[in-house]
Amino acid sequence: MDMKDYEKKSLLRFTTTGSVDDGKSTLIGRLLYETNCIFEDQYAAVEKTSQQRGNERVDLSLLLDGLAAEREQGITIDVAYRYFTTEKRKFIIADTPGHEQYTRNMVTGASNSELAIILIDARHGVLTQSKRHGFLISLLQIPHLVVAVNKMDLVDYSEEAFNKIVAEYREFSRKLDIHDISFIPVSALEGDNVTTRSANMPWYNGHTLLHLLENVHVDADKNYVDFRFPVQYVQRPNLDFRGFAGTITSGTIRVGEQVAALPSGRTSRIKSIVTFDGELEEAAAGQAVTLTLEDEIDVSRGDMLVRKGNLPHVGNEFDATLCWMDERAMDRRGHYIIKHTTQKAKAFISDINYKIDVNTLHRQEADTFQLNEIGRVAIRTSQPLFFDNYQRNHGTGSFILIDPVTNHTVAAGMIRGKMRTVDEVAPQQPVPGTRSSNVKWEEGLIGRADWEKRNGHKGAVLWFTGLSGSGKSTVARKVVGTLFEQGCQVAVLDGDNVRHGLCGDLEFSDRDRSENIRRVGETSKLFFEQGNITVCTFISPFQGDRDFVRGIIPEGHFFEVHVKCDIEVCKRRDPKGLYKKALSGEIPNFTGISSPYEEPAHPEVVVETDLEDVDTLVQKVMTALKDRGII
Amino acid sequence: MTHLKQLEQESIHVMREVVAEFKNPVMLYSVGKDSSVMVRLAQKAFHPGKFPFPLMHIDTGYKFPEMYEFRDSFVQDIGARLIVERNEPAIAQGAHPSVLGNDKCCQQLKTKALLDHLAKHGFDAAFGGARRDEEKSRAKERFFSVRDEFGQWDPKNQRPELWNLYNANIDERESVRIFPLSNWTELDVWQYIKMENIPIVPLYYAQPRKVVELNGIIIPCDYTDVVDPQGKLGFGEDAIEEVDCRFRSLGCIPCTGAVRSSARTIDDILAEVIEARRSERENRIIDLTSDSSMEQKKREGYF
Ligand SMILES: Nc1nc2c(ncn2[C@@H]2O[C@H](COP(=O)(O)OP(=O)(O)O)[C@@H](O)[C@H]2O)c(=O)[nH]1
């Protein structure tokens, strides 16, 4: 093989998981063996052990045995790292065991992985564990999932058996936020479809596992948009040089670009991007560099350099999904130390919203978390952190908690978003002199307060935004029905009814989309001023347009409802066949395909239609209306 | 980014994290190829600053002369501070594998020397060049590996490591071993040495050497008396032959055998590593004693 090719190789980090005896060790052993990454002496040792144990063939799973203790017990107890390489790629496997400690180990192994392989024993089908693993993978937002249906040799290589598992797992995965799933029928023991196409399964037209691992496209998963540079270390070798060393978490940066330092907010320009191998003009996510600035501004470890027009959240309260990893249960009386990017602070768990039963995905009330438990919490820190949602940015959305007494790493967290304060969510009192219910439109007209009094509820604008097929109309229709049943005065505006009349002259260019929303916004305001709970369902992809509507409705009366759903799920639903047309290019400027969708930064309500059923979501909206005193 | 670039960036990130979070780090320098790579990564991490921590060589007195020579000139070239430490009492008493056995000798000259001198200098973090692919028990090693006050490793009680967030919190008496090359393989190391043109001890290159062969292990004649000071093994004159050979990994003379090879350049070595059918530590006599010998050593505090 050509040496030069080796120097152009890329890297893929993946994790493997499965229940005990699904054949995970055998599969990894086979990958290592068939890519020639096992040495003769290692192989000889395994051969010897296999013979001693009376196995008739060499047990490749023995190659993976790690520590003495577990070798005696014959199980793996911790994440182990394995390496193999082909001409195209180097692979780092985080091999995580599937038994009791699975959550902690899986989360650890998954945290740095770009792809996950879940093993399913073809004889047993989709078990609870397989779903649990899928849930964790979705939680950790690993972009690619491969379901390897193993031991096909034991089900006579049956296409039917395979298809049944595929159908069942696909159905289950609709509830998850997983973007790319592949299914491969394999026999780790016999080698079918691992590195070579199986002659036993002519009905399978897909790729082998190795082919998929070598070709899966991972670069597109990185965030090259939001420049975030947590300062790791300040270089001050002499009085003339002051550089900020760190790894670019996301985004790109060029010499001459303006940056702002957090928390000071001071701005400057990038003077140089310094590396041992010479200065760079531009650097991107993943690169460890040293940045110097045009101006002397005070920056130290834990600070963050960002672009002025693209800021992370800055705050000391946020909501997070937390996975507890310590033998000792969470203790809310004291504090923990949070490590987030290059910052450390004291952290208090201010609230536990719920924990999730990883088997049923049901939410349960909880007042503490035990080892391996996962749930949603609110965290308050002693200093402000600079963060993004984990979903958008793994680097600035992840953190660990450290016990200040034992020094153990006790939890891993993924930030869901900024925590809302009571002031923000409480209904606002009308402020004299500004737009308020006291201001009458025209002499003699009935004002909103009068309508509201008669209706027995406040006026509001419920703005449902989300991708096509995300379920906006389904949820909205049910909300309207529920409100109607409760005797509320409701008005409905939706894409279909205004596009035919009021906005019949508009197309789908960015400008026309904005104009569409402006008209609808103004209309909703008229309804609102007449005491209606106005329900609007529009894709409304641009934050700026939605903010316009928010701006013309008094605070506390506008509800941005983000109807969230994985685009893959939307595509699958495709109720009007629009994605199909968009993908074939028939419809230009289609949101999510050929035109962007800007997720709401601070929606009042988020409903995830791929995770929960409609009734739960409707309740969520109703609760929000009640909490803010609308109904 | 290529795989090597990604590995490099990861190692640099780890090194910077250590220097920012610990009070008194040191780099354990073993003179081998992995140490050479580690030094280059540190240069990159702290450029244009100077080398931010000392190098410490735990010398057993049994290293190859070429290694001492290389060490002194290499360290001078990069402008780092070198600390050389040895277990003098044990060396004075003639510690040798033939007297103590391999394990005991290692325990005295390496493990004890290392622990004593880490404590003496008050180092709270020590970089080591070990890689996870080297040996089974290392596959579960962390980047930041916490050791108790006796330098011991407890494989059952390790901290989970997530994302690139490393937990550097330790008690007064504890210390941490840092393995920035955790995710590198032997092949990665050689490719990087080639790509970066990193100097290495010439013993890694093949040349014709007069050797004797004992139980399949090749020992250069020049050193038979170091390997076998009491003449117990009876290396006879007649057994001597001249073969092309090199060292795949470098350790103490009594415990390191050569391998037959004609790899005279870095490209030759690369080709050999790619085709290699035997693991690099096979010629390290220290690993062969028992199936879990390395794990035992690690528990005691050796790396
Ligand atoms: N027939 C058959 N047996 C397999 C296959 N893969 C693994 N096994 C066997 O299943 C058992 C468990 O495999 P192992 O790899 O240790 O499972 P792990 O616990 O998931 O690592 C062993 O006896 C394997 O030989 C397969 O594809 N076909």
Topology:
The complex is a heterodimer of chains A (631) and B (303).
Chain A: H1 3-7, E1 10-17, H2 24-34, H3 40-52, H4 68-73, E2 80-85, E3 89-95, H5 102-111, E4 115-121, H6 128-139, E5 144-150, H7 159-173, E6 180-185, H8 209-215, E7 228-230, E8 233-238, E9 241-247, E10 252-254, E11 258-262, E12 267-274, E13 282-284, E14 288-293, E15 304-306, E16 313-324, E17 336-340, E18 343-356, E19 363-364, E20 374-387, H9 394-397, E21 398-402, E22 409-418, H10 422-425, H11 448-455, E23 460-465, H12 472-485, E24 490-494, H13 495-500, H14 510-529, E25 533-537, H15 543-552, E26 558-564, H16 567-573, H17 578-583, E27 605-608, H18 614-627
Parallel strand pairs in A: 1-3, 1-4, 4-5, 5-6, 23-25, 23-26, 24-25, 26-27
Antiparallel strand pairs in A: 2-3, 7-15, 8-9, 9-14, 10-13, 11-12, 11-15, 12-14, 16-20, 16-22, 17-18, 17-21, 18-19, 18-20, 21-22
Helix pairs in contact in A: 12-18, 14-15
Chain B: H1 3-21, E1 25-28, H2 33-46, E2 55-58, H3 65-78, E3 82-85, H4 88-92, H5 97-100, H6 102-121, E4 125-127, E5 144-147, E6 175-178, H7 186-196, E7 207-214, E8 217-220, H8 224-227, E9 241-246, E10 259-260, H9 266-275, H10 285-288, H11 293-300
Parallel strand pairs in B: 1-2, 1-4, 2-3, 4-6
Antiparallel strand pairs in B: 5-6, 7-8, 7-9, 9-10
Helix pairs in contact in B: 1-2, 2-7, 7-9
Bound molecules: guanosine-5'-diphosphate.
